[in-house]
Specification:
heterodimer, B: about 160 residues, mainly alpha, 2 domains, transmembrane (chain B), membrane (chain B), DUF1468 (chain B)
Chain lengths: ~500, ~160
């Protein structure tokens, strides 16, 4: 039995004492940082990335995965308790979670978020274990046109749920692709847009740019729009465990959320955010008590949390089988892998099975640890949330600076962060969202490479994308997605969901 | 010109469109020095040109569209917070090698600290010292990062 022997390899690697310890430290640190308002999973991973440099490859990836899960869960805690989602994916959790907290059911909201995440994590781990080898074999058959089509679809998907106008989001993607051009061209190794600055030959560091836009840009934005009340409210945290009837009430919501997250997480550009939004929208439609949504519905917390976690986990699949990072966090993971000398892609599974399966098993262990760690420690996280923002933002700024400096031990990355902090702030004020920009920047260079190779393959004939069935299907879905999003009724409904936070 | 601007409905969209268009022009002009190649054998200048055309198109569309629809007032672009937070971070970058982490972090915290108003000076100073101490203990000492605690100005 392939599956059993694969999981045995994974257990062997993940259950060593040191790797268990790394998973635990990762979850703890991730939650600790992720729970701080304004710091989402990607900022947290970027900030804690340097802590894993010294470990061996398996250990460092296991710890990073732990940080990632911890940060996601920490972000949900903040969203529920203070209505401050750290990242787009927990925006929908905040809608009903915060309402539950205001009604004194914060404990129930937190524990059902944890249980929903855990269930979704278990299912997603199993799905990855069963299907990753199949997908990996399929990925080996992928040629340049298929990769190109998949990335185009990913970029479109990241637009689909950006706030506000479609033209702005598309423009932000193209702007991101333009920034991705800086540095040596991969195909011809010509230097582009370096403006005579030698540090730019390797391109702009994506982590420095992301930290500038999400970290510093966000701080400036928050300082201007700070709500009067930021402190965590006094909430009753007893009755932490859900009762049998709560569990029964949320079970279908969790199942639907897991299914949606599992499918949408596979898309590059999809991942947790798209999953959480779609799960919430669906739940609102099909739930028996639809009128409760927006006023503290249990399903409104459980479904997006399950989808969020399933989507987060499934987004490891495109990274590990195709080498495509499907969101900012996965790009950071890819960066960490390359720093350890591993080229993410279909070969990882064959050449380093202990690393691959160790990571898969540690995903499940990470989820288990989160539940065990978080339920008893909820009180501590609440304490942490009472740090006033006027001190908190300074700590975030210092951590961002130290984190970015440590990437290459170079002050230049700090300057890149400063510049993009300003750029991100101005663009956001004008309604340009940072997320599609970053996606464009991550996928841009790969998009160019695969476009160039496809054109060489077809001798300059663009029909190659339509002649190959897989790429034609992917491009068709992308075109359909953009038409659906552009339809006025859908656009209105999408904005309505986004406005409700 | 003023009466043209006065009929503008969405100043935010207009200025974002202008930025897109401006960047597109810079890319188009700057990338003329790169070899365009052919579609079959794309040179380093091929994609930049495509990007410039797309971005310029989106920019014009956005700017043109900003004259129609309902009036949406622009938000104020507060500059002082941006200057203090980003200036503090830039100073950190300048100081971290020559002066070291202690000085760089203190300067960053104090400069960025004034972005929040009202701000009392003494608590900020105390917080700056505590946070810097915490950073020195955690990052170079516990995590073993290669960041100088004291820079080349103090240590030979």
């Amino acid at each position: 039995m392939d599956l059993v022997s694969n999981i045995a390899i994974g257990l062997d690697s993940a259950l060593s004492w040191s790797n268990l310890l790394y998973a635990f430290i990762g979850c703890l640190l991730g939650t600790l940082v992720g729970v701080l308002p304004g710091l989402g999973p990607s900022a947290t991973v970027a900030m804690l990335l340097p802590a894993t440099y010294q470990l061996d490859p398996a250990g460092s990836l296991i710890m990073l995965a732990g940080i990632f899960y911890g940060a996601s869960y920490g972000g949900s805690t903040t969203a529920i308790l203070v209505n401050l989602p750290g990242e787009a994916s927990s925006v929908v959790t905040a809608i009903d979670g915060y309402q539950m907290a205001r009604k004194g059911r914060a404990g129930l909201a937190l524990s059902s978020a944890a249980c929903a995440s855990f269930f979704a994590g278990c299912v997603a781990t199993l799905v990855i274990a069963i299907f990753a080898p199949v997908l990996g074999r399929m990925a080996l058959k992928f040629g340049a046109p298929e990769y190109f089509a998949l990335m185009a679809l990913g970029l479109i998907a990241s637009v689909a749920l950006a706030r506000g106008s479609l033209v702005k989001a598309l423009g932000m993607i193209v702007l991101g692709v333009a920034c991705g051009l800086v540095g040596a061209d991969r195909g011809t190794s010509a230097l582009r847009f370096t403006f005579g600055i030698p540090e730019l030959a390797d391109g702009l560091n994506i982590i420095a740019v992301a930290m500038g836009m999400f970290g510093l840009g966000e701080i400036i934005f928050n300082l201007q729009t700070e709500p009067a009340q930021r402190s965590a409210m006094k909430t009753r945290l007893r009755d932490l465990w859900p009762h049998m009837k709560d569990l029964r009430a949320m079970a279908p919501a969790v199942a639907r959320g897991t299914a949606i997250g599992g499918v949408l997480g596979l898309l590059p550009g999809g991942g947790p955010m798209l999953s959480a939004f779609s799960a919430y929208a669906l739940e609102k439609r099909v739930s028996k008590n639809a009128s409760e949504f927006g006023h503290g519905a249990l399903g409104g917390v459980a479904a997006p949390e399950a989808a969020n976690n399933a989507g987060a986990q499934m987004s490891f699949i495109p990274l590990l089988t195709l080498g495509i990072p499907s969101n900012v966090t996965m790009a950071l993971m890819a960066g960490a892998m390359m720093m350890q000398g591993i080229q993410p892609g279909p070969t990882v599974m064959q050449e380093q099975p202990d690393l691959f399966w160790g990571l898969v098993v540690s995903m499940w262990i990470g989820n288990l640890m989160l539940v065990m760690l978080n339920l008893p420690m909820v009180g501590l996280w609440v304490k942490l949330l009472s740090i006033p923002y006027k001190y908190l933002y300074l700590a975030i700024a210092v951590f961002c600076c130290i984190g970015v400096y440590s990437l290459n031990n170079s002050p230049f990355d700090v300057y890149v962060m400063v510049v993009f902090g300003f750029v991100g702030y101005v663009l956001k004020k004008l309604g340009g969202e940072p997320a599609p920009f970053i996606m464009g920047m991550i996928l841009g260079p790969m998009l160019e490479e695969f476009l160039r190779r496809s054109m060489q393959l077809s001798r300059g004939d663009p029909m190659i994308f339509l002649e190959r069935p897989i790429s034609a299907a992917l491009l068709f879905i992308a075109a359909a997605a953009i038409i659906i999003v552009a339809l006025p009724t859908v656009a209105k409904r999408k904005d309505a969901v986004l406005e409700e936070e | 010109m003023p009466n043209v601007l006065a009929s503008m409905k969405k100043p935010q969209d207009f200025f974002l469109g202008l930025i897109f268009l401006g960047v597109a022009i810079v890319i188009a002009v700057y990338s003329r020095q790169y070899d365009l190649g052919t579609t079959r054998q794309m040179g380093p200048g091929y994609l930049p040109l495509v990007i410039a055309l797309l971005l310029g198109g989106f920019g014009i569309l956005l700017a043109a569209r900003s004259f129609f629809g309902d009036w949406e007032p622009a938000e104020r672009l507060g500059i002082s917070q941006a200057v203090l937070v980003l200036g503090g971070a830039a100073l950190f970058g300048l100081l971290v090698r020559p002066a070291g982490l202690i000085v760089a972090a203190l300067v960053l915290i104090i400069v960025a600290g004034f972005a929040y108003r009202p701000r009392k000076r003494l608590p900020l100073l105390v917080f700056a010292v505590l946070l810097t101490a915490g950073c020195v203990i955690v990052f170079p000492w516990l995590l073993g990062q290669q960041i100088p605690v004291l820079g080349s100005w103090f240590v030979r």
